[in-house]
Amino acid sequence: MIVRIMGLGQWTMEPEQLLELNTIDEAVEQAVKAGDQEQLHEELQRLVEAVRSNGQEVPDDLIVESDLVLPDVDATLEEVRELLDSTSEYYGLIPDPEAGLETAQSE
User: Which of 23, 25, 48, 77 would staple 92 via disulfide (CB 3.0–4.6 Å)?
Assistant: First the structure.
């Protein structure tokens, strides 16, 4: 899967690596629900660091379509809320384990 972090680039990640991000994804959702910009910033920082440390960066000269788009660490509550609203009602920014693996394995 190709994960884009807005403003930072793209990383290739295996579906099982994405599963590790679900806890952080849930914390991002909770920060948005609570309207806590400071907590959101902290959780987005954790999310970005996890993608960068677990994924393989896609070279800038390679153009590929992203499977997931994540906000950068400076995203506002409203920007993240819009992203969450545009995803499935069953998961946040990262597909839940069952949904994400089933989709990835069927491709």
Answer: 25
